């Protein structure tokens, strides 16, 4: 199913018609334009004139700007998120400045514990809490690293920069996520920690699109090079995660053979690690992680029949991190929707919202799944209408 173009007025008209529970013929009967023209506008074959948009907006009971641009709900959401993100951006810019005399130095052990807690908050999908806690923590760790540098301080700062990347990415700020990764590399180098540096390469690789496959592949290889000769449990887990990252990069470019090769390598490393390595930088690398990435690759490759079998075979244990559980539910919704199982897809979306509302609301796949359900539904259930309004459609 093709993704909806957010700049396509006809696509927005179709969404809001579905939300109003009207067929094309029913809406055409309410406007001074033909059914044929409405059909062509919705599919993008004909442009929507101002007069046409005004007539449709009046019939649907919405403001015309809702049909021609981003919805007001989305703008409100974006303003709120921007207010949370702005202090993080400012804190990331402190890295090369002299310490402010107004900031009080804190024990490194306390700062390291706080860094671990904010990372845990992200895994528990408490994104707003993490976003609020990050700026003062980055500031305090920057001061500590500048005034009394140590391996533990630089490691904690690198970890916190990594968390800032995760928060920025989950909230849709890719530019800020890139800055945070640059800072992570800067701190990891000073910590002389190859595992943290390799995780940064893994994160960098995932930030590149299908057209940049060779760059993504090279970044993963750079991560493996950093771990060369190391066989600790930590290094094995990070190496396995790099293979999973490589599988995602390969899937984006349609390289099915590379996907299979990296999934197999990750599965073999998971056997060597033994159990879920949750203590290794919150990667939670293990067999379940491999299965979830294999599912993700099938979705990216649009192998939805295969993905359906994989998703129904996966049984998440009760100890699964909230962020991972919610992501799986959204993936499951996409797969069910693409296989024509709308009711199941909607149930998974509702469960994802209940499990992790902040993460689910901002995840692009949530919007894709809800948009797909709106396009395929003959009548829009109340639950789907509420979900659409919730994400700003």
Automatic annotation (TrEMBL):
Residues 13-67 form the HTH cro/C1-type domain. InterPro entries: Cro/C1-type_HTH, Lambda_DNA-bd_dom_sf. Gene3D superfamilies: lambda repressor-like DNA-binding domains. SUPFAM superfamilies: lambda repressor-like DNA-binding domains (SSF47413). This is Helix-turn-helix transcriptional regulator.
